[in-house]
Amino acid sequence: MSSTTQTAPVKHKSISYAGWGYFFIAPFIIVYILCALIPLLSTFYNSLFEYYMDGLKQIGPNFVGLQNFITLFTPRADGRLEIFNYTANTMIMWIMGAIPQIVFALLLAVIFTSERMKIKGQGFFKTVIYMPNLIMASAFAMLFFQIFSSVGPINQIITANGAPAFLFFDNEWSAKSIIAFINFLMWFGNTTILLMAGIMGIDQSLFEAAAIDGANSSQVFFKITIPLLMPIIIYVVITALIGGLQMFDVPQIITSGRGGPNNTTKTLVMALNAYIGTSKNYGMAGAVSFVLFVITGILSFIVFRSTEPKKEKKGGKK
Amino acid sequence: MPSKMEYIDKGNKVSLLVSRVVSYIFLVFVTILSLFSFYLLLINSTRSNAQLQAGFTMLPREHFFDNLATAWNDQSIFFLPQGMLNSFIVAAFTCILTSYFSAMTAYGVCVYDFKGRNFIHKAIILVMMIPTQVSALGFVQIVNQLGLTNTYWPLIIPAIAAPATYFYMKQYIDSTLPLEIVEAARVDGSNEFRTYNFICLPILKPALAVQMIFAFVASWNNFFTPALILDKKDVFTLPIMLSIVRSRINSQAGDMGEVYMIILLAIVPVVIVYLFLSKFIIGGVTLGSVKG
């Protein structure tokens, strides 16, 4: 690791290069502080102020303490707590997409890594399943909006038999399902590749031993693959969850920013975007950001806890 | 007992055949699932508005170039070629800065034993998971104060500090770059930046290529930050244009053939790049992942 200090005993060769490290990391650190850290702190600072645009008139910034958070967590007159609804929408749509995503990815990863089956054309299949991940979410959103629109191909099939057109984006569950489906489609390939790497890391002799003992494929899958893959599955699930919390492009474009019908597809980040961009309520935007930050922080903490012990194991293995 | 062995063998062969067939069927299903939207997009981009209104078909028609001309020349709300150029400029600069400077940082942490290096490493890993959206408000306010709205600086400069790219490059350098090379270069009188730029960077090429592709695609597809910073027609990037097309459709139908063509043109460059480099991309996902 630190070979410069290791060879230090030769006294005269003591020109230290260590200081050069600061020049190498300087651009990154300076830019990070200016473009991410200061904005982050100023975002949180904003959350303590009453600060919004009333038409063209700017209100504030007036220091109000935690008032924005109180507003955020106070139910409206009709008993709805908007921040809770947005979080719930985000999570429901994420779960609806994540379950098939993980299941498909697991199946595909097992198929691709199976020594016994030796699937041909793997390169082609992997290329194809990863492709949706690279397409802009906005293009997917547009495309699916077109496919499911009142005059799109799906409704042409429905109306061909004389039935009235089904307005997919006016129904909470069909709208949520379409958004979840797009997320599933975009991410299952990526998850497959990650899980494949995990399976390939499992000691092959375990599979051979199981085969000799006469275990069938489903026994191997549930008794060997899944338990040994658990740390990576947890990693994949939680990083996907953190990604899911940031869900924005697809619902934003597919519902034209309204999160319709009736705010049932509005996500946390859509609400944040509306506070920053549309209503310019910076105080509330700061409060929403802080909530998002806290949730992400808790989840990241779980990721680190679940991947930490793995590192020791890796050192022993190779 | 040869007969029993044969029996087991035969049973294994049958079950192997069954699981192969089932697997291939599943793979074909997944392939169709992944490709049908692209297929639909391609077909629909070859059909005129009237044909699109008339009904859904599986076969291409002859209006591809009409739609292309309409989408390419339409300047009513935005100018598509301009958007493609804008997206390209932002994505190209982003991917170069991200890969170069994040690799440089990783190199600095790997090669030099400076004070606080462990702290820096841990700090970068710690902030890796923070979504950009969380600091967006403060960022947009600073951009406004500096008068940088509707410029590309706020989209390009932050790319210098990409914690995820740093993490990936750190893993890669730890496992592939022998420090003896750096020492040897010093003996030959090369200065430290020269060593990095001309000796070590070439060794990191495979990992750099992967990160450049990812950064390019991520920037090309980025919607959240540009949408908060750009609001003038001639600086729009493609995802913003798509969101405008979407909101226009709500009010009046417009030319559907053009709409499909715009979506197609927005994704074609990335698909082409991907098909050429898919091997690296798929290999690259795992390279920097949990497995290291």
Quick summary:
The complex is a heterodimer of chains A (318) and B (292). In chain A, 70% of the residues lie in helices and 4% in strands.
What distinguishing features does this structure have?
heterodimer; A: 318 residues; mainly alpha; MetI-like fold; two-stranded antiparallel sheet; 70% helix; disordered N terminus; disordered C terminus; B: 292 residues; 2 domains; 75% helix
Topology:
The complex is a heterodimer of chains A (318) and B (292).
Chain A: H1 3-6, H2 20-46, E1 49-54, E2 57-63, H3 67-72, H4 82-113, H5 122-134, H6 137-148, H7 153-160, H8 172-200, H9 204-212, H10 217-245, H11 249-254, H12 268-278, H13 282-317
Antiparallel strand pairs in A: 1-2
Helix pairs in contact in A: 2-13, 4-8, 4-10, 5-8, 6-8, 8-10, 10-13, 12-13
Chain B: H1 2-44, H2 49-54, H3 64-73, H4 80-111, H5 117-127, H6 136-145, H7 153-156, H8 163-176, H9 179-187, H10 192-203, H11 205-221, H12 224-229, H13 238-251, H14 256-287
Helix pairs in contact in B: 3-14, 4-8, 4-11, 9-10, 11-14, 13-14
What does the largest sheet of chain B look like? none
In percent terms, what proportion of residues of chain B is strand? under 5%
Order of helices and strands of chain A: HHEEHHHHHHHHHHH
Count of runs of 4 or more consecutive helical residues of chain A: 13
Beta strand % of chain A: under 5%
- Examine the secondary-structure arrangement and name the CATH architecture of chain A: Orthogonal Bundle
* Reported CATH architecture of the largest domain in chain B: Orthogonal Bundle
The helix content of chain A is 55-70%
Model regions low in confidence, pLDDT < 50 over at least 5 residues of chain B: none
Number of strands of chain B: 0
- Shape designation of chain A: globular
CATH superfamily of the largest domain in chain B: MetI-like
What does this structure look like?
The complex is a heterodimer of chains A (318) and B (292). Chain A is mainly alpha-helical and 318 residues long. Chain A has one domain: MetI-like fold. In chain A, 70% of the residues lie in helices and 4% in strands. Chain A has helices spanning 3-6, 20-46, 67-72, 82-113, 122-134, 137-148, 153-160, 172-200, 204-212, 217-245, 249-254, 268-278, 282-317; strands at residues 49-54, 57-63. In chain A, helix 2 (20-46) runs antiparallel to helix 13 (282-317) and helix 8 crosses helix 10 (217-245). The relative contact order of chain A is 0.13. Chain B has 292 residues and is mostly helical. Chain B has two domains: 2-67, no CATH class; 74-287, MetI-like (MetI-like fold, Orthogonal Bundle), CATH 1.10.3720.10. Chain B has helices at residues 2-44, 49-54, 64-73, 80-111, 117-127, 136-145, 153-156, 163-176, 179-187, 192-203, 205-221, 224-229, 238-251, 256-287. In chain B, helix 13 runs antiparallel to helix 14. The chains are: A mainly alpha (318), B mainly alpha (292). Chains A and B meet through helix 1, helix 2, helix 4, helix 5 and helix 6 of A and helix 1, helix 4, helix 5, helix 6 and helix 9 of B.
